[in-house]
């Protein structure tokens, strides 16, 4: 699993029928402090994430292990919306406080 922030959405009027109905998100990969690393990923959304939220995403074959993506040609899937994280007992992020 990887940490990222939802930067926006991707809209495609023509696509492979196997991915019809999947919402596609542009993710900015984040470090443990929440700062973006400069790397971006397009991921299928399995949980209803929105712009500005921090999420956990899986890549590779793990991305196809959700109900929404089972058997679909995706390489990255948002699997969770992050509420908070801490490192060494120190709060680093709490949803609603820092977003």
Note down, in words, how this protein is organized.
This protein has a single domain (2-94), classed as EutN/Ccml (OB fold (Dihydrolipoamide Acetyltransferase, E2P), Beta Barrel). Helix content is 0%, strand content 47%. It contains no helices and 7 strands. The chain has a 5-stranded mixed barrel. Strand 2 (24-30) and strand 3 (36-45) form a beta hairpin.
Question: Over all CA atoms, what is the radius of gyration?
Answer: 14 Å
As a percent range, the share of helical residues equals under 10%
| Topology as a string of helices (H) and strands (E) | EEEEEEE
Count helical runs: 0
CATH topology: OB fold (Dihydrolipoamide Acetyltransferase, E2P)
Tell me the domain tally: 1
Poorly predicted regions are none
Strand content: over 45%
* Shape verdict: elongated
- Give the termini separation: 21 Å
Major β-sheet annotation: 5 strands, mixed, barrel
Q: Please list the strands of the largest sheet in the order they lie side by side.
A: 1-2-3-5-4
DSSP strand tally: 7
């Amino acid at each position: 699993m990887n940490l990222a922030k939802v930067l926006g959405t991707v809209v495609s009027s023509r696509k492979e029928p196997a991915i019809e109905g999947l919402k596609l998100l542009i993710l900015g990969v984040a470090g443990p402090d929440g700062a973006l690393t400069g790397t971006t990923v397009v991921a299928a959304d399995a949980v209803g994430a929105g712009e500005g939220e921090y999420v956990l995403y899986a890549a590779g074959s793990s991305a196809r292990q959700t109900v929404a993506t089972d058997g679909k040609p995706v390489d990255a899937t948002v699997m969770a919306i992050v509420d908070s994280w801490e490192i060494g007992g120190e709060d680093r992020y709490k949803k609603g406080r820092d977003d």
